[in-house]
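Sequence in, structure out.
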Amino acid sequence: MPATPWVWNYPHRCRHLSRGEAVLKPMNNKFPTGLYAITDPILLPGNRLLSGVESALKGGASVIQYRDKVASEIDRLRAAENLSTLCKNYHAKFIVNDDLALCTRVKADGLHLGKTDGDIVVARKKLGPEKILGGTCHNDLTLAQLYIELGVDYCAFGRVFPSRTKPMAPPCDLSILSDASALNIPIVAIGGINADNIAFTLDYNIHSVAVIDGIFASDDIESAANYLSAQLRASRQCFS
């Protein structure tokens, strides 16, 4: 990790916008800007889940997504209840991945659906207008436009870099982030993002960066989250 975690150490990227470039979009009060941490059952097995997530929250994560495709229903329920309480204690948003029933049962702040995970229309109707609904668009701007029309609160684009979690996910060129930033919705970059490459995503006025390995594979989760959060805050200041 770079030695100066409080400084966005790519000063040439902090610049005034030329005519025609994207300007800072108003903050979505429902879906906060900043670091979006996603759990992984391999990196955070058993009792390490809560302690690892708390470390990420201490490091500045503003959103936590619970993602576990392998645990039993009862284990997922217990984990989601505990994570929901933990996020409330840190004033962070708690999102459930791909499980509308679990999301509503634990009264999570929102739901994230992958491209083939569920019905956006059904989810929006069930969640109501106050809950957060996000969707994965990979590299598809047309799909993002459709999702916006169907009522999502943010669109996730990626993988922007090679990803251990989803190595076969369609790649998303950084130029897509540039086009996506013009959409009237918060944009989340995802896929292989870490301390070494986050700066390459920050030219594009994105709302948030979603990270798994770059946080939870670290020996010091809190420091990793703190560094990434600081980079995001600095980049927002550049666009303000």
